[in-house]
Amino acid sequence: MKNLNKILLIIALNLTFSFSVYSTPTNQFINSVSPPMNANSVVKSSNIVIIFEQTMNGSTMTDANVKVFGYQTGLMNLSLDFNSVANTLTINPVNEFKNGEKISVTLTSGIKTISNQSITPFVFLFRAKALGGTGSFNLSSEISNTVSGYIRSGDIDIDGDIDLVINNAVYINNGNALFNISQTLNQQGRPDIFDADNDNDLDIMISNIGTIYYYKNDGLGNFSFFSTFPGSVWAYGDLSGNGLMDITYFVNTSEVRTAFNFNGNFISNPVVTLFGQCVNNGDLYDNLLIDDYNNDGNMDIMAISGWINGSSITFYDICRNYNLLEKNGIGEFISQDAFYHFSERWSPIIFEAADSKSFDFNDDGLVDIESPILKLNNNSNGLFTETGGFVVFSSSLDFDFNGDGFIDLSANNSGSPLLCYLNDGSGDFSFYIGNNLQFASASASGDFDNDGDIDIAIKEYSNDKVAILLNGDSPLPVELSSFTSSVNSNSVKLNWSTSSEQYNSGFEIQRSIVRNETPDAWTKIGFTDGQGNSNTAASYTFEDKNLLSGKYKYRLKQIDFNGNFEIYDLSNEVVIGIPTSTELMQNYPNPFNPVTNISYRLSENGFVTLKVFDNSGREVKTLINEFKEAGYYTNEFNGSDLASGIYFYKLTAGDFVQTKKLSLVK
Description:
Helices cover 2% and strands 53% of the residues. It is mostly beta strands. The protein has a seven-stranded antiparallel β-sheet with strand order 9-36-35-34-33-32-31, with no helix packed on it. Strands 37, 38, 39, 40, 41, 42 and 43 form a seven-stranded antiparallel β-sheet that branches. Strand 34 (429-446) and strand 35 (455-460) form a beta hairpin. The longest helix has 15 residues, at 2-16. The chain is elongated. Residues 1-21 have low confidence and may be disordered.
């Protein structure tokens, strides 16, 4: 039975998420995870499900050992449910993910098997679904008097809206993509925002000339200086697998250092030497990326660095090494040269080449790399293959422009318009201009106006303004073409159809009992999944069974993926009348343990008894012994105090007597 439960759950997860076998974890303790590793389009209300390979100790499944981080929200509060039969942990975040948000899940070594063996720490990433958008980014508003530098986005004051940090200034979103400055920190530099102390809010780290200035959030978006320590934040993630966000940074083009987080204190590790002919005495710092490039449940580091040489006469050459830093089993990072790139005869624009990104661009479950000039496909063996390229860019953003489930890339360099690359899901990108204004090399993304799609905040060129570019919404709503009802005895069948649907999560079916001069009290009685996005007709059916005599109203609550909804009322009241004959129905379920339902119909008023007898004819329970009006009825029979066996139930109503058999199986 245990294996059957596991098989059924795995089938269900595969029906829910379509993903390549490459996204299956390679870990002796983990059988599978849902959402899949590196998934790019996860519904924001999704649970996280871990199926273990070995029999686990359920008492170790605690929030001390299970951590979920939102890159725009911080450490998330969780509800945990371990099913010892299916050997499955269900993680239910208390709050939904942000649209398009990157999510990190950590299972620490505090989780143990039934034999008290600690698991190897396991970390994986996925992204929440972006809802809609057209990929046309329109200027909505501007933030003036900003300092040149960097832009970061996240829910700083925990009010549900995505805020901004621009250099050392904090800007709070009013919920409609309008930003007001709330605080200016006393140290300028390059900001990064993440939950550094696991207190469920985003803190600020400002890097400036080899020193990190750490500002703590009080939970309301107010920051106070906490400490300084050596280094610089190039990237952050749970590198150690202890459920805390660590950092990594370049020492120089041939050396990288990590600093592990111990309860908010960052301890530096020895430098890791990079390899390749480009890294020594170089001057090109492209980026440091944290991702799991081999799906082993450990966060790796991709270090991209090198040199640019030449002159305006001979033009310029660029040389880059892509070093993959993987853990060696004892917590240390070992570097290997994953890709080498050399290109020659470039104009001075090549000096702007930087800010590579990593995401799965071809939907094979493996994390690929998107760089200035290059597009690199992950071969799953620690090496990468060039499969195309982009223009030179100095700043980039990776998110889903149009809600199709595939990650796209926006890019720009100093003075360029917004350069957009739309991914078709196979890794082929179509180029277009997303906005024709001129921009500088600083940007951030997020759902600033809370409409489900992802917007952009980007520094304007040659002035002190940051532009808020809102993603154009797709216009097609759900169009309901019909909504009807039919009655069969005491059941109601609802039928409705749509001519088109856009971002339709589904329909919640609601019912209200009609009572004279009493306001409608609506009750949810079911839910039917929608088509998502469709321009063709679709039909739906829902049956409401075993109703009592009376009048009813029905309505549909059509819900978008982003939580928006529309109400569609059934035009007529539904009447469940009086039965034409008296009848005793077969109980359901049958066999049962220990509760079953017994339904009956009365065609006229009268005194009614409903009794249960054992196999010897002895009365064991009286369920009904009273006057009843004509109508439909259902009574619950609880056999928890009876032994397993065959029993009989008898309905007496006037001259009507009928007996049926039921089976109690414990």
